[in-house]
């Protein structure tokens, strides 16, 4: 799903289909910590919006009980990560626990959509977009 990789990939020479090893290991039906219902991989002729980042894709993991959907990029985000210029680890967060109404990425300093997932360092109250931290 248009994701960069630095590892091995599977390639079909006939149709030019490429699949990295990490994505090949993702099951078609899964339970994700960021959502209460099961998600099923679905491909449609129209683009669907990812509930985590807002990107639109033809292939997403969709909830059959509600309008929630995740693209491959967000389904495979690591639960914890590090940032080169920060001493503490970051944890993937699914909801804002602050009622200030102001949410900014501490890396790019742009506003963060409060409905989208983000990485958070609780020790420093440091917030970052997933795209900025990777």
Automatic annotation (TrEMBL):
Keywords: Repeat. Residues 34-75, 85-133 form the DC1 domain. Signal peptide: none annotated. The keyword Repeat applies. The keyword Repeat applies. Pfam families: C1_2. InterPro entries: C1-like_sf (IPR046349), DC1 (IPR004146), Vacuole_Formation_Reg (IPR053192). SUPFAM superfamilies: Cysteine-rich domain. This is DC1 domain-containing protein.
């Amino acid at each position: 799903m248009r994701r960069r990789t630095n590892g091995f990939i599977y390639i079909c020479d006939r149709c030019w289909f490429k699949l990295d090893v990490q994505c090949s290991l993702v099951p078609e039906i899964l339970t994700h910590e960021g959502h209460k219902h099961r998600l099923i991989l679905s491909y449609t002729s129209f683009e669907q919006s990812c509930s985590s980042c807002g990107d639109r894709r033809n292939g997403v993991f969709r909830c059959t009980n509600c309008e929630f959907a995740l693209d491959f990029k967000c389904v495979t985000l690591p639960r914890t990560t590090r940032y080169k210029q920060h001493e503490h680890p970051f944890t993937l967060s699914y909801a804002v626990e602050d009622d200030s109404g102001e949410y900014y990425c501490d890396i790019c300093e742009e506003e963060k959509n409060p409905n989208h997932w983000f990485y958070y360092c609780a020790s420093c109250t440091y917030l970052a977009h997933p795209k900025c931290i990777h």
